[in-house]
Amino acid sequence: MKVEFAPINIPLKRRIQTVAVLQWIFSFLLLAEFCCGFFVILILGNFWFLAVLYLLWLYLDWETPCTGGRRSQWVRSWTVWKYFREYFPIHLIKTSDLSPNHNYLLGFHPHGVLVAGAFGNFCTGPSFKNLFPGLTPYLHIMPIWFGCPFFREYIMSAGMVSASKESVSYVLNNEGGGHASIIVIGGAEESLNAHPGSLTLNILKRKGFIKMALKHGAHLVPVFSFGENELFKQVANPKGSWLRNVQEKLQKIMGFALPLFHARGVFQYSFGLIPYRQPIHTVVGSPIPVKRNLNPTTEEIEQLHALYLQKLRKLFEEHKSNYGIPEHKSLIFE
């Protein structure tokens, strides 16, 4: 394989952007394991009493990820996130006003490999606040990550909370409105479809978010992130292949998927885990009004689900030409 090296005279700003993305990749892939290892070292070393104190804190603070988390505006405003967003770059596109008098459930599509658009737009920077004043975004992620010592504090500081039913209910149950739950509807399973050019969404059987919106009267908002699947290449894993079968079995056991992805490196463009510099345009659609229904019937859930799919497809079709999607390509719902 011929290796394509980066030019020596690349501007310093672009180098800083690459380093910012590198630390994000480290945080996403290795920081949780590093924190767990550090915790074990504390237990086995001379500072075991610090580990005991932290365990006590963990016990007292266990429910926080399900009760709105503990965000830090300081962490969310770190300069490193500015360079992270500029690397791709990441943009948030508004198509309609969202009144702060209501609560909203934003369905984010597609998952991509590492959900860069959701993190960049809803956990860092001022874009969401500037476009939708009065709304506070909560990005829901897998509950397993909040069991990792120290790491849980870091992700909560960025505004992430648990994706458990209790957590979503807490966010959407705000009587005064002004809360926005962001849920990556396709989940970890959808990351296995995150190949460049892929428009396949795992959504036909995903109806829990519809039921949650009905129970709380939260307005539904489809969100499509153009460019999300273009950031990495993935080892071919068509459905039915031995690799896909192994990945799906591991996903069921562990709760998260293991896509075998690759892209570029820090000083060369041929291989590595740094994503490609591909623009991400996260388009926030118009709200679907939802009336509160504490005991929705199956038929009511199905009807609202069908309407959501219709609005999501419309959002994609109206904007695809702006972001390089050929006219003949459309979303595939599975």
TrEMBL record:
<keyword id="KW-0812">Transmembrane</keyword>
<keyword id="KW-0325">Glycoprotein</keyword>
<dbReference type="GO" id="GO:0019432">
    <property type="term" value="P:triglyceride biosynthetic process"/>
</dbReference>
<keyword id="KW-0012">Acyltransferase</keyword>
<feature type="transmembrane region" description="Helical">
    <location>
        <begin position="21"/>
        <end position="41"/>
    </location>
</feature>
<keyword id="KW-0319">Glycerol metabolism</keyword>
<keyword id="KW-0256">Endoplasmic reticulum</keyword>
<dbReference type="GO" id="GO:0006071">
    <property type="term" value="P:glycerol metabolic process"/>
</dbReference>
<dbReference type="GO" id="GO:0006651">
    <property type="term" value="P:diacylglycerol biosynthetic process"/>
</dbReference>
<dbReference type="GO" id="GO:0004144">
    <property type="term" value="F:diacylglycerol O-acyltransferase activity"/>
</dbReference>
<dbReference type="Pfam" id="PF03982">
    <property type="entry name" value="DAGAT"/>
</dbReference>
<protein>
    <recommendedName>
        <fullName>Acyltransferase</fullName>
        <ecNumber>2.3.1.-</ecNumber>
    </recommendedName>
</protein>
<keyword id="KW-0808">Transferase</keyword>
<keyword id="KW-0472">Membrane</keyword>
<keyword id="KW-1133">Transmembrane helix</keyword>
<keyword id="KW-0443">Lipid metabolism</keyword>
<dbReference type="GO" id="GO:0003846">
    <property type="term" value="F:2-acylglycerol O-acyltransferase activity"/>
</dbReference>
<comment type="pathway">
    <text>Glycerolipid metabolism; triacylglycerol biosynthesis.</text>
</comment>
<comment type="pathway">
    <text>Lipid metabolism.</text>
</comment>
<comment type="similarity">
    <text>Belongs to the diacylglycerol acyltransferase family.</text>
</comment>
<dbReference type="GO" id="GO:0005789">
    <property type="term" value="C:endoplasmic reticulum membrane"/>
</dbReference>
<dbReference type="InterPro" id="IPR007130">
    <property type="entry name" value="DAGAT"/>
</dbReference>
<keyword id="KW-0444">Lipid biosynthesis</keyword>
